[in-house]
Amino acid sequence: MEMINAEFIKDLKFDDNGLIPAVAQDSVSGEVLMLAYMNEESIRETLKTGHATYFSRSRKQLWEKGATSGNYQDVVEMYVDCDQDAVVLKVKQTGNACHTNNHSCFYRRVKEGKLEEIPTGTAAKPGILYDVYNVIVDRVKNPKKGSYTNYLFDKGIDKMLKKVGEEASEVIIASKNYVKSEVQYETADLLYHLSVVLVEEGLTWDDIFVELQKRYK
Fold first, then answer.
1. Number of domains, the chain
2. 42 class by beta-carbon count within 10 Å (0-12 exposed, 13-18 middle, 19+ buried)
3. Domain that holds residue 142
């Protein structure tokens, strides 16, 4: 992390205990890893060392993330929100961020009024799959002339499944030929068409990742 002029600290709005909430976010995936608190001293220490250092409200002292567990957070960037009363640390996480051995502390989501565990970290959803999925959902809600996605939905599930079969066959052929670039290309096609089927069936990639996580365990 580049050394940052610490003059900005005087403009931060710390609470009555001299603390400010700090969110740690994976610098590559964008996944939210944890929420902790910092004071002026811990911010300066973070800027000095490049390692995320927080303030423990229970122990009333600074703590460097990973100092005992080895799960360090190398800070890539620091952001301050519009009200200057919260900060975000973009970090490179070593190991897991959560003491439960989940990559992120936010490994439970609210679904139908209950908490459901979801995969995080390397088992979490790849962002691009969600981007593609969301575009497909938008095409269904807001049809676009000439859209291939809308063409598939107009033709219905039989056409969608036929394309999944065709693309799966293409992956097989490319793999048999040991051509990496073709395997890469055809796999992307297959994942797109699978996304279309998921939308049609009322499923999301989260549902698939949860199922994979069950099998992984």
1. 2
2. buried
3. 125-216
pLDDT bin (cut points 50, 70, 90) of residue 2 is very low
Domain membership flag for residue 68: yes
CA angle 88, 93, 99 (to 5 degrees): 95
pLDDT, tens only, 128-159: 888 899 999 999 999 999 999 999 999 999 99
Examine the domain organization and report whether 159 and 200 are in the same domain.
Answer: yes
Average pLDDT over residues 61-85: 97
Rg (CA), the chain: 22
190-213 residue pLDDT tens? 999 999 999 999 999 988 988 887
Q: Which two tokens stand for residue 30?
A: 């964008």
Q: Dump the DSSP string for 79-110.
A: EE-TTSS-EEEEEEE-S-SSTTS-SSS--EEE
Question: Counting beta carbons within 10 angstroms of the beta carbon of residue 22, is it exposed (0 to 12), middle (13 to 18) or buried (19 or more)?
Answer: buried
Q: Which residues 6+ apart lie within 8 Å of 99 measured at CB? A: 69
List the CATH number of the domain containing 202. 1.10.287.1080
Would you state the torsion angle of the CA atoms of residues 181, 126, 138, 141, taken in this order, to the nearest 10 degrees? 110
List beta partners, residue 56: 61
Q: Do the domain assignments include residue 194? A: yes
